[in-house]
Amino acid sequence: xxxxxxxxxxxxxxxxxxxxxxxxxxxxxxxxxxxxxxxxxxxxxxxxxxxxxxxxxxxxxxxxxxxxxxxxxxxxxxxxxxxxxxxxxxxxxxxxxxxxxxxxxxxxxxxxxxxxxxxxxxxxxxxxxxxxxxxxxxxxxxxxxxxxxxxxxxxxxxxxxxxxxxxxxxxxxxxxxxxxxxxxxxxxxxxxxxxxxxxxxxxxxxxxxxxxxxxxxxxxxxxxxxxxxxxxxxxxxxxxxxxxxxxxxxxxxxxxxxxxxxxxxxxxxxxxxxxxxxxxxxxxxxxxx
Length: 289
Ligand code: C5P
Description:
The chain is α+β, with helices and mostly antiparallel strands. Helices cover 34% and strands 28% of the residues. The chain is built from ten helices and eleven strands. Strands 1, 2, 3, 4, 5, 6 and 8 form a seven-stranded mixed beta sheet that branches. The chain has a four-stranded antiparallel beta sheet with strand order 9-10-7-11, with helices on one face. Strand 1 and strand 2 form a beta hairpin. Residues 25-27, 29, 103, 134-136, 151-152, 177-178, 181 line the site of cytidine-5'-monophosphate.
């Protein structure tokens, strides 16, 4: 095998609490991460010439700042056996939206390289390499539904029997993740008074009860992003008016997800959001990727 296509699935957060700040500036968190069907596509080909040739259609830098290049570098540093690759990225996941698009691409790149390399590494080893690239990369390698702790790299599988169709919408510019964490630092200090309580949500998800889950979805970032990005609240209100059972900002925003009972309702909400000038996508939660 010398060429393959690998989907890079976006994530949303169903629950997210920051519980501490480390001396290196990273934050401890407790979060329920969920893969969704919205995905980028990577086409990765093994080529004669050494190095990484990346084509993003001009929408992203192709230098070391690109997480795909960083993933390849980290992979070959660990394997010690570099080979040449040409990579084409078709971007679908909105950028700087809190949906893990860059991490998903890095994860897909690691998985693709490993396949082209005869499955040199186990999934756990790929996650170790992924953790050196970004906090969300290990989750994006494994996917599905996970309760993540630490900076996001300590993962436990979670049963998610919730049904429903998702609409994800974004209004306005991207949000810088470090700046969003900075806002939380200002509000919560050392986070000593914060306790994470995902248990009720987890049991509602296990039972498949959206009614029980509805009041338990949580994202601490909403408290600091909604006041400076009123569009987040506007999108949530629009979704609720269109019949969403629950809505929540994902990650550090500004993307917002809403869960709907039927495809028809979700499609109508998406159309209304598009008509209001927002970006909007229909997708599904994925129990495995
Ligand atoms: O790991 P990643 O590059 O995705 O993180 C982007 C930025 O988000 C980090 O530089 C850091 O400022 C912040 N971050 C954090 N704590 C985490 C994850 C990310 O402070 N657990």
